[in-house]
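Lesson 9: reading folded outputs for more than one chain in a single document. The general rule is that every protein is listed as its sequence immediately followed by its structure tokens, and records are never interleaved. Here is the first one.
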Amino acid sequence: MNLPNKLSLLRIILIPFTLLFMLPINIYGWQPEGWNNFISNYGMIVAAVIFIVASLTDFFDGQIARRQNLVTNLGKFLDPLADKVLVISVLLGFLALGRVNAWCVMLIVFRDFMISGIRLVAAAKGEVMAAKMIGKVKTFVQMVAIIYLLFEPLLFRITGQTTVYPLPVCAITVIGDVLFFLCVILTVVSGLDYLFKNLDLFKESK
């Protein structure tokens, strides 16, 4: 396994650790008080650092693969899988905390499944779908929004406010909401852009 693929695999391995520090433990009513207190006070900060490290592996694995000509079929499978599972897992974590809207998360998940399906159809016909600029912008805004949401509890602590979810409505959460909804809008727009520009893939040859 080459270095880019190891980085993609590392990104997948970091996902459960991100969720571990995002969410308090509650197993049939059993809640480890010390651990959950740590999660409540510092967990999101640790989760944010892990998420940033995971996001950086996404940047470096692609750069290394292209520069050193290490593009492989395994890499083509692992890289997008790691990206989608990382983002969706963290969004589901926020959904469990009551921080994000379920419909918004559903739209993001639906878009990712749709694009994956389009790519499969394109690959079956011997075509390669290159990443589009709007998709890259969507990904950037998505990462910025998630990182901001992860650091929200720290911003609340700095301003002396409560960090218990659901977080109260104030300037801090409004900024987070704006970033997240912008991410959702770009997700929908980029998904429609991919769909409409690749409708020919679904036309049956006569």
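And here is the second record, again sequence then tokens.
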Amino acid sequence: MAPYEFAADQYISLHTRFYLGGVLFDKIPVLQKLGWRERFSFNSYWGKMSSDNIDYNKNSNFNLINKTPFMEASVGIENIFHVISIEYYWRLNYLSNSYAKKNGIYLGLSLSF
């Protein structure tokens, strides 16, 4: 979801991550030696806005969620060189928003001390 793409007075959001810990990659000898780990995630957002706030913000550029919650899913690999992760995500709905990306790649960096 793009920042500030949707607005709401009341909302609920769900952010999940499922770490497999190498269950799939450990069956492939080359990937087992690399120590890569796989993960899946699913994010959802649903909310509503009062009519007073809709009227107040009529000149603002944001979308309201209708009866269907926003949803996106992703698959990723982590533990690359023990610090890097890469994740491919895609939107599952609200694809008609012109400025919203339909899919993409996130790169992450994890530092532990």
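What the second record shows: The mean pLDDT is 90.
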